């Protein structure tokens, strides 16, 4: 009779593998260690309810079956599998394609090993093996934090470029066409765009706070925050300013500076 597969989470250090089998209320599981395999069968409560669960893992390298143990807890089963030779494995299984029910337990890569002595801690893979950690994350989730940052900055910079190019182009065309008469109507066209572009720029302050962007927060806060105050509290509520040549020149300079930056 075929068994359902429980969710299994794994981590490692140089000496051992750590498996967490996501099953509750397990009694007398059938567990077998081999040099390059791990067999598990049990009845318990998992992702599919109260059923018979099982799986077999073909490891990418050899383990020590005699020193490997599993501990049955109320809400999970923890396994400490000792490697035959010390070293970091590039993956858990022999095949590059891992099954969908096998997950990487990133918390265990960085937390204290609760199956060994209290003084022993797991290596932080992010520091010791940064390339391996990023590759494992990409295999697990399909993307990494750096991928998200790159996509965000591409979209953000493109939006800023298109937006400020639009403002500069409109101001330049209107001035070349109508001269100083363009001062009386430019704000209706570019005013909302300038407001929205500066609201978007406020995200630069947030990016500095969360560490996605380097730099001091105070200069960005003064520049972007100061412009937002001017636009929303002084310029936008005062219609008489909307026809001033000084404001026309100010918006042209601001937009040109942002394009260069």
TrEMBL record:
Membrane topology: Multi-pass membrane protein
Main location per the UniProt record: endoplasmic reticulum
Record field: transmembrane: 151-176, 196-222
EC number: 4.2.1.134
Alphabetized Pfam families for the sequence: CS, PTPLA
Keyword Lipid metabolism: yes
Cited PROSITE patterns: CS
Signal peptide start and end residues: none
Biological process per Gene Ontology, one example term: chaperone-mediated protein complex assembly
Pathway where this protein functions: Lipid metabolism; fatty acid biosynthesis
Key words of the record: Coiled coil, Endoplasmic reticulum, Fatty acid biosynthesis, Fatty acid metabolism, Lipid biosynthesis, Lipid metabolism, Lyase, Membrane, Transmembrane, Transmembrane helix
GO molecular function terms listed in the Swiss-Prot or TrEMBL record: Hsp90 protein binding; protein-folding chaperone binding; very-long-chain (3R)-3-hydroxyacyl-CoA dehydratase activity
Protein family according to the UniProt entry: Belongs to the p23/wos2 family. Belongs to the very long-chain fatty acids dehydratase HACD family.
UniProt-recorded name of the protein: very-long-chain (3R)-3-hydroxyacyl-CoA dehydratase
Lineage: Eukaryota, Metazoa, Ecdysozoa, Arthropoda, Hexapoda
């Amino acid at each position: 009779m075929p068994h359902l597969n429980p969710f299994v989470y794994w981590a490692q250090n140089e000496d051992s593998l750590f498996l967490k089998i996501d099953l509750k209320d397990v009694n007398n599981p059938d567990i077998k260690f081999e040099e390059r395999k791990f067999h598990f069968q049990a009845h318990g409560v998992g992702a599919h309810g109260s059923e018979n669960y099982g799986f077999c893992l073909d490891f990418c390298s050899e383990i020590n079956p005699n020193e490997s143990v599993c501990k049955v807890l109320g809400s999970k089963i923890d396994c400490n599998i000792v490697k035959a030779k010390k070293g970091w494995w590039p993956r858990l299984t022999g095949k590059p394609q891992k099954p969908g029910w096998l997950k990487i337990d990133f918390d265990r890569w960085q937390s204290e090993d609760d199956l060994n002595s209290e003084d022993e801690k797991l290596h932080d893979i992010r520091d010791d093996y940064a390339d391996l950690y990023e590759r494992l994350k990409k295999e697990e989730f399909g993307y990494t934090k750096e991928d998200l940052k790159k996509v965000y900055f591409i979209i953000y910079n493109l939006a800023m470029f298109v937006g400020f190019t639009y403002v500069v182009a409109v101001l330049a065309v209107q001035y070349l066409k109508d001269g100083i008469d363009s001062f009386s109507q430019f704000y209706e066209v570019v005013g909302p765009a300038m407001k929205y572009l500066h609201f978007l720029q406020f995200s630069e302050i947030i990016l500095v706070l969360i560490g996605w962007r380097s730099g001091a927060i105070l200069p960005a806060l003064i520049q972007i925050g100061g412009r937002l105050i001017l636009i929303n509290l002084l310029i936008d509520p005062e219609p008489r300013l909307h026809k001033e040549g000084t404001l026309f020149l100010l918006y042209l300079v601001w937009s040109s500076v942002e394009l260069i930056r």
